[in-house]
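Here is this case:
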Amino acid sequence: MQEKILVIEDDESVRRELAQLLRANGYSVVDEPPCDLALLDVNLPGESGFEICRRLRMKSDVPVIFLTARDSAEDEILGFGMGADDYIRKPYHSSVLLARMARLLKRGANPVMTAGDLTLNLTDQTVGRGDEKQELTKNETRILACLMKKGLCTRQELVEDLWQNSLYIDENTLYVNVNRLREKLEKLGAKDYIHTVRGVGYRL
């Protein structure tokens, strides 16, 4: 089945060129969600690409790449703050864009992560150990996914991953989410799996 790429680009010639590239490489191009990956320009009439990304993130975890001529560090930081997975400046190199898309699509294609005897299903947001399972919230799922992927995650990394903008979140909120996750792991017999690293963050 062809993977669907959402393309939001107000320059019609650029959009045509991009759509042609994507179709030539086996993707289908769509104008609105649902999609498997989104390519967003920033400078758009009316609503900006940043705002579109923010709204998309409220409903979906699909990979988002900003493809834009805006090249300031502030814009790039804002893009990642809105939940983007990558930020590519125009003019882009076709092979680089396709490689980064493939990496993100591959990451999203595997909904199961494992660490030791724990199995995390990203699709149905459950963690399992042996024959037992526990349902997780979206935040708990993201915390455990970060820990499984990196082993050690700083508090800042977790806050930015969960809420995109750490200015509006205090560390107590993260602490509450981690403790709830610990309680669910304990119900699976996985006690003391998440360790606090003083002054740094958490380790699995």
The mean pLDDT is 87. The two ends are 36 Å apart (CA to CA). Helices lie at 12-24, 49-59, 73-81, 94-109, 138-150, 155-163, 171-187.
